[in-house]
Amino acid sequence: MYYLLTYDVKADYLTTRGAFREEHLKLALSAVSRGELRLGGALTEPTLGAALLFEGSSAKVAEDFAAQDPYVLNGLVKSWQVNEWAIVLGAGVENPN
What we know:
By secondary structure, the chain is α+β, with helices and mostly antiparallel strands.
């Protein structure tokens, strides 16, 4: 199952994230290596937030990431949410419903 983690970020996110970026990317790359994080990135122009796509047996995989993310822990993220994402079309989808 897929889960979309979305972040609503502070207005100064782009200028303040530098201090935490290395630690954030280390956490993300670790999730990638475990096969949990499939895609991630910022929503740009204007910077509205970020979205990260996780794969796992429950939403816990995305929730645990957010709970450990230095962007969240250091207040760059105003709020976050996880939603199950039922992918209908795209790479790896053989029988769209």
